[in-house]
Each structure stands twice: as structure tokens, then as C-alpha cells.
Design goal:
The chain is built from eight helices and six strands. The protein is α+β, with helices and mostly antiparallel strands. The strands form two sheets. The protein has a four-stranded antiparallel beta sheet with strand order 4-5-3-6, with helices on one face. Strands 1-2 form a two-stranded antiparallel sheet.
Length: 233
């Protein structure tokens, strides 16, 4: 039992390390799905290893108790893929939900095979991976982990100087704005419209404390901005 808890706990820690690395680099596979997948994979492996000793043996030499379970894992993976959505600006959402759907199959396999303690520890770690650990990491980790992305579309007047507008949006060097509260541009696309105006399509990395409404009104008040559309990703 202690060895099993150690393995599941170590899987949580290693998945967390991978998730931190991905999140710092603003990759789609973030903290929660990395931990969930790692814990669930460890749980399935533990069930597979111990299932033969529990259900196989000399009385059933040709028995493979985990053959059907392997098909369950593959089949549920397709269900999880259905909740992954590709949104604007190459943003992908639903990875955590997909990982949890897949992980629930691992819990069902463990319970069905009679590994109740393993399943109990697994579900506790999975819930902690989604709800508790990310909050702790954000509170003690680097500033990059305490930010979220928003998609912004701005229509500006014709021939307006874009560089000055971008600097204003980023809030760099403004009074009372430190580096942690600046907006960081992760993606930018410029497009000419039929009325000679320009459309700026941005993905901004902003502090978690910044409300979407605050971002909207801040950009809307900038000179020469005609319209603004803000979406939290």
C-alpha cells in the first residue's frame, strides 16, 4: 500500500514538473492535464501489474485479465478527444476535461479489478491536481504562472502609427504600472479593412487579477481606437 501511494504521488510530482515547464513556455498542454494524465497512467500500470497475480495463475494459464481494460482506455480516448476545441488564434481548450474523461476510465478499471485503495488514492490525487496544486504553484511560483490569455480585436483609424498604439496597449513604462502588471503580446496579426481602417488581432498575456471588462475599457479609451472586442481564452 505504501509503495503504491509513493508511486502515485511521484507520478503527480513529475506530471506537475512537466506542466510547469509547458505553462511557463505558454504551451497548450498545461499544469492540470499533465498531472491528470501522469497519475491516471500510473494507476492503470499498477492495476495491470497486479491484476495477473490476482486473477491469473496456474488455474487460468491463458487468461489475460487486462485485455478488455486496454480496449476501454483506447475507446474512452476518442470520447475525450470530442471535448477538445480549437478556438481563435490557434488556442486549444478542453485539454483538462479530456484528460479527466480518460482518467475516469482508469478509476473504473481499478475499481472493477478490486483495487479499491489504489482507486481512492488516485481520485484524491486527481482532484488535487486539478483544484489544489495549481493554486499553490501560482502563489509560490514565477510570475508567468499567474497570468491568463485574452484575445483582442481592435479597429483603429486609417494610417495611425501602430508602434505607439502597441506600446500603449502593453502599458510599458506607464506610471504606477510595474513589470508584473504589464500586458504581454503573444500573438499579433494586422489586416487592412475596406474602409481604409486597420484591424489588429492580438493575444495578450495579462495578470490573473485583471478582469476582462477592465481590459476592454482600457483599450477603448485609447485615442484613435474605433472599436474593441475582447474574449477571455
Amino acid at each position: 500500500m505504501m509503495e503504491m501511494m509513493m508511486k502515485l504521488g511521484l507520478a503527480l510530482v513529475f506530471g506537475m514538473l512537466i506542466g510547469i515547464d509547458r505553462q511557463i513556455k505558454h504551451k497548450q498542454l498545461g499544469l492540470r492535464p499533465s498531472m491528470v494524465i501522469c497519475v491516471a497512467s500510473c494507476l492503470i500500470t499498477l492495476v495491470s501489474i497486479h491484476a495477473f497475480g490476482k486473477f491469473g495463475g496456474t488455474n487460468h494459464p491463458n487468461m489475460d485479465p487486462m485485455r478488455l481494460a486496454a480496449q476501454i482506455v483506447s475507446g474512452v480516448g476518442f470520447i475525450g478527444a470530442g471535448v477538445i476545441l480549437r478556438r481563435s488564434n490557434e488556442v486549444i481548450s478542453g485539454l483538462t476535461s479530456a484528460a479527466l474523461i480518460w482518467s475516469s476510465s482508469a478509476l473504473g478499471i481499478a475499481i472493477g479489478a478490486g483495487f479499491y485503495a489504489e482507486a481512492a488514492v488516485g481520485v484524491i490525487l486527481l482532484i488535487a491536481a486539478v483544484n489544489v496544486v495549481p493554486i499553490l504553484i501560482k502563489s509560490i511560483g514565477p510570475e508567468t504562472l499567474s497570468r491568463h490569455d485574452v484575445a483582442v480585436k481592435i479597429m483603429v483609424e486609417p494610417n495611425y502609427r501602430m508602434t505607439e498604439l502597441i506600446k500603449t496597449i502593453e502599458r510599458k513604462g506607464q506610471d504606477g504600472i510595474n513589470a508584473k502588471r504589464e500586458f504581454k503580446i503573444r500573438y499579433m496579426k494586422l489586416k487592412d479593412l475596406e474602409n481604409n481602417c486597420q484591424l489588429i488581432d492580438l493575444t495578450l498575456s495579462v495578470p490573473d487579477s485583471q478582469y476582462t471588462t477592465e481590459i476592454y475599457y482600457y483599450i477603448k479609451k485609447i485615442d484613435h481606437v474605433q472599436s474593441v472586442e475582447v474574449e477571455q481564452l
